[in-house]
Design brief:
By secondary structure, this protein is of the alpha/beta class. The protein has helices at about 15-20, 35-45, 60-70, 95-100, 115-135, 145-155; strands at about 5-10, 55, 75, 140-145, 175-180, 185-190. Helix 2 crosses helix 3 (about 60-70) and helix 5 (about 115-135) packs across helix 6 (about 145-155).
Length: about 200
């Protein structure tokens, strides 16, 4: 089911915290002016693209990006697309955390008070299943969300463990496409950014 379906991963535009490198999960902050400008570029890029379904994280920054890009009226909110819950590390940069925990990495260390990477991977698997069910005969499904959940989703799409998401950089306001080469799931395009 869903073979031939493309998943279009669209990361929200810039926020104050994404600009600073602060881990942002459950804190619901808006886009910056630059983030809105990038969302307008997404609108221009996606204009005329027909999606069988559009799903969006419930967080303001993703919903705002989705709306500016022109899909707010058709998007369905999906809690599975929320960003990784960073627990006590919410709002802190990796550098700040490493001052307390040398060598710390979101990909390798325990997330105190938050989600394990494996749990985020399970959420990503659920999003993939829902997207494929939304376009069972092939087509396009848009997912407006956040960096880590989308990186983990890409890893799971091609059969990697959730930690494989560490291998994929993803800029704000970017578009990536997951698809197929015959019956094999592949990454067709990755991290298309707009200036």
């Amino acid at each position: 089911m869903g073979e031939g379906t493309e998943l279009w991963l669209i990361r929200h535009g810039e926020t104050e915290w994404s600009l600073s490198g602060a881990h942002t999960s459950r804190t619901d902050i808006p886009l910056t002016e630059e983030g809105r400008r990038r969302a307008e570029k997404l609108r221009d890029y996606l204009k005329g693209t027909k999606f069988d379904a559009v799903f969006v994280s419930p967080m303001q920054r993703a919903r705002e990006t989705c709306a500016i890009a022109g899909f707010g009226d058709v998007a369905k909110v999906d809690d599975g697309l929320k960003e990784w819950d960073y627990g006590i590390y919410e709002g802190k940069t990796t550098k700040e955390i490493q001052a307390q925990v040398p060598g710390w990495s979101v990909w390798k260390n325990e997330i105190v008070g938050g989600e394990t990477v494996e749990h985020v991977g399970q959420r990503a698997d659920g999003v993939i299943a829902q997207a494929l069910a939304a376009a069972p005969d092939g087509g396009k499904v848009a997912l407006f969300a956040h960096a880590h959940i989308l990186r983990i989703l890409a890893a799971r799409w091609i059969g990697l463990d959730a930690t494989g998401g560490s291998l994929f950089g993803l800029g704000t306001g970017s578009v990536s496409v997951l698809g197929w080469e015959r019956e094999t799931r592949v990454i067709e395009r990755w991290n298309r950014e707009f200036d």
